[in-house]
Design a protein that fits this description.
By secondary structure, this protein is α/β, with parallel strands linked by helices. The protein folds into two domains: 5-181 and 222-248, Rossmann fold, CATH 3.40.50; 182-220, no CATH class. 47% of the residues lie in helices and 15% in strands. The protein contains eight helices and seven strands; from the N terminus they run βαβαβαβαβαβαααβ. It has helices at 14-25, 37-49, 64-73, 99-127, 148-167, 186-199, 203-212, 223-234; strands at residues 5-8, 29-34, 54-58, 81-84, 130-135, 173-180, 245-248. It has a seven-stranded parallel sheet, sandwiched between helices. Helix 1 packs parallel to helix 2 (37-49) and helix 1 (14-25) packs across helix 8 (223-234). The longest helix has 29 residues, at 99-127. The mean pLDDT is 96. Its EC number is 1.1.1.30. Keywords: Oxidoreductase. One of its GO terms (molecular function) is 3-hydroxybutyrate dehydrogenase activity. It comes from Marinobacterium rhizophilum.
C-alpha cells in the first residue's frame, strides 16, 4: 500500500493512541491530535521511539475555531486519511443527565466529526483520494440504558456518513464507520464503575453480564483488529466500500 498521512483525533490515549502506533508501524505518517496537548505529545514520543513519522497537535473537535485553525496549520500537509476517534462517555438515566454533558458528547462525537470532515474534504477531493474512518461503536447499531447521549451521537454518525458517501461518490473518497463492541480502554474501565453504580451490581458482573454476555464470542475487541480493518479501508481494494457500518461485535448483532 502507498504510504499515507493519517490524522487521528483522540490520539492521546486508548484506541486512538494504540491505533496511531499500529498505523505508524506500518509506515504511515501520523498526525496525532488530542484535546490535551501533552497527551498527543506522549503518543508522538511512543511512535518516535519506534522510528515512526509523527506530528502531534492539540485539537478540541468541539470548537469550530480549533478546527479552522487546524485546517490553516495543515495547508502544507497532505492529509489522506481522517480517523474520527475522539470520544467520551457519560452513564446516567436521562432524568438526571446533565444537559451540558449531553451537549458535549454530541458536540465531540457527531458535530466534531462532521466539521472536521468538512474541513478536510476539499483537499481530499483536490488530490483525488481520501478515506474517512469513523470509530463508532456497537451503540451506533443498538442501544443500552443510561447512555442516551452516546447512543444518539453514534447513531447520528451513521446517517451523516451516508450523506457524505453520496456527496463524494464521484471521486476516490470513502467514509465508513467501524462499530466495535467493548474494547478494554480507560474509557471502558470508567464505564464499568459507572454501570455498576447505576445497575446496583458488582464491577465483575458488569463485565460478564452487560459487556460480554451479549457477544457470542465473549471477549473484548482488540485495537489490533480495528487497526487492521482501518488499513484495509485505506487500500485500493476498498474503494467501493463506503457508507457502511462495519460491526466488529463478536456476533452481538446476530441475535
Amino acid at each position: 500500500m502507498q504510504k499515507r498521512t493519517v490524522l487521528i483525533t483522540g490520539a492521546g490515549s486508548g484506541i486512538g493512541q494504540q491505533l496511531s502506533q499500529v498505523l505508524a508501524a506500518e509506515g504511515h505518517r501520523i498526525i496525532a491530535t488530542d484535546l490535551v496537548s501533552d497527551a498527543a505529545q506522549r503518543t508522538a514520543q511512543l511512535i518516535q521511539a519506534e522510528g515512526g513519522d509523527v506530528l502531534a497537535l492539540a485539537l478540541d473537535v468541539s470548537r469550530q475555531a480549533d478546527i479552522d485553525a487546524l485546517r490553516a496549520q495543515l495547508q502544507s500537509e497532505r492529509v489522506d486519511v481522517l480517523v474520527n476517534n475522539a470520544g467520551l462517555q457519560q452513564v446516567a438515566p436521562l432524568e438526571s443527565f446533565p444537559p451540558e454533558r449531553f451537549d458535549l458528547l454530541v458536540q465531540v462525537m457527531l458535530n466534531g466529526a462532521a466539521m472536521l470532515t468538512r474541513a478536510l474534504l476539499p483537499a481530499m477531493r483536490a488530490q483525488g483520494y481520501g478515506r474517512i474512518v469513523n470509530i463508532g461503536s456497537i451503540h451506533a447499531l443498538v442501544a443500552s440504558p443510561y447512555k442516551s447521549a452516546y447512543v444518539a451521537a453514534k447513531h447520528g454518525l451513521l446517517g451523516f456518513s451516508k450523506v457524505v458517501a453520496l456527496e463524494t461518490a464521484d471521486t476516490d473518497i470513502t467514509i465508513n464507520t467501524i462499530c466495535p463492541s467493548y474494547v478494554r480502554t480507560p474509557l471502558v474501565d470508567r464505564q464499568i464503575r459507572d454501570q455498576a453504580r447505576e445497575h446496583g451490581i458488582s464491577e465483575a458482573d458488569v463485565v460478564s453480564d452487560i459487556m460480554l454476555k451479549p457477544m457470542p464470542k465473549g471477549v473484548f475487541i482488540s485495537v489490533e483488529e480495528l487497526a487492521q480493518l482501518t488499513l484495509f479501508l485505506m487500500s485500493p481494494a476498498a474503494r467501493n466500500i463506503t457508507a457502511q457500518a462495519i460491526a466488529v461485535d463478536g456476533g452481538w448483532t446476530a441475535r
